Structures are given as structure tokens and as C-alpha cells.
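Appendix B, Record 12. Input sequence as logged:
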Amino acid sequence: MNRFSLEGTRVLVTGANTGIGQAIAVDMAGHGAHVIGVGRSAMDETAALVVAAGGRFDAVHSDLATVAGAQAAFAEARDRFGPVDTLVNNAGIIRRADSIDFTEEDWDAVMDINLKVVFFLCQAFARACMAEGRSGSIVNIASLLSFQGGIRIPSYTSSKSGVAGLTKILSNEWAANGITVNAVAPGYVVTNNTEALRADPERNKAILDRIPAGRWAEAGDIAGAVTFLASPAARYVTGITLPVDGGWLAR
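Logged structural output:
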């Protein structure tokens, strides 16, 4: 038995259209999972990459900015494809401004998608697993800002600190039901969210100087940790936030 295989499982990945979410979808499909991507944008490119890798991908289109939209997407995925074995909460946004100038609108937009919707998707998933008497796994995407403060991103830091805390409490409550709840905290990754940082020569140099690995992560560097936490090999791992950061936190 390959304890790292996801063969025969269904995995729901939010925000699977680009970046880390896309890499997770492709990696998990490559390990045998049927991946269901959820998001507002088209996921045709992700679907093509998954199929090229020999996997299966289906899309559920929904606005993840609201709890109702997220819950409807989860219900649609179950109705169309059957029980979901793993939930990956990857979708997220970031807004940048000095904390002294940060607006309520930007605060609410980030907190709603990055934390509020994450909780209620976890809840929907756990309720389904418990009703059906099945085990399952949740992998939340946290951040280095789950451990550190950062600058000019107060709502993002607060939301990702919240994801780490949420991961712990849900693991405490649901482990006895056979549901593992973990998080992966990516380091500095080449994605749309970090474009502003990489375009700033001073910030880019400061970041690279701090990373022992000497480079920004690629999205694929994060995907393997998510796949592991969803696999049978991690069935006794729960409540952790695993940094995948090229050594950033160790320095």
C-alpha cells in the first residue's frame, strides 16, 4: 500500500485557478485524487494541466466572498460528485496600506474571505463527514504572517494568524471524529499576491537576503506539503501549521 496515495479520494480546492491553488490541484491529482476546484474565475488552465498529468478535474463556480456562496459551492460539489474526502482552503486576498490609513472596507473584504469563509467551509465539511460517519482531512493555507507581523497588511496578518488558531481549535474538537485539521504556511512565493513585493527592488532584495534557500518559492514547492497532510501517511498529524519557507523562520 502506498501511504502517500490519494487514489479514490475527492478533494475540494478553493481558488484553484492560479498560483498555489493551481499547483495544489495538479499535485493532488497526480497522486490519484479527483480534484474539484471552487472559485469565481475560470479554471480552464488548471483543468488542462490536471488532464495532461493524467488526472480528473471538475469546476464549481461560486463567489467565495460570502458564506452563502461558499456553502452553496460545497453543497453543489457533493451533489454532483459525491462525498468530499479533503477540503483545501486556499482562496485568499490581500490589501496593502499603512495601518494608520487602512479602511474598514479593506479590513472586511480580507477577513471575510481569508477567515470567515474558511471557518464556515470547514464547518460544512465536518458536518457532512460526521453525518456520513466518514473520516476526512482539512488543509488550510496559512502564511508566515501567521507567526510574524509584517508591515502594511493588517487585515491579512490578522486573518492568517486567525487561520492558525482556527486550525488548532478545530483539530481539538474534531480529531476524535477522524477529521484531521492542519495548515501549511507558505513562505515568499511567486504569485499574483506577491507581485508588488517582487517589483520593489529594495523589498525584493531584503526578502531574498533573509531566505536561507536564496530564492522565492515556486507554487509547486508548497503543493507537496498539502498533499502529504491529506494522505494516509499523515493520519496522526493534526493541529499543526507547517511552514514551507526555505528556512525563513529559522533565521
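The radius of gyration is 17 Å.
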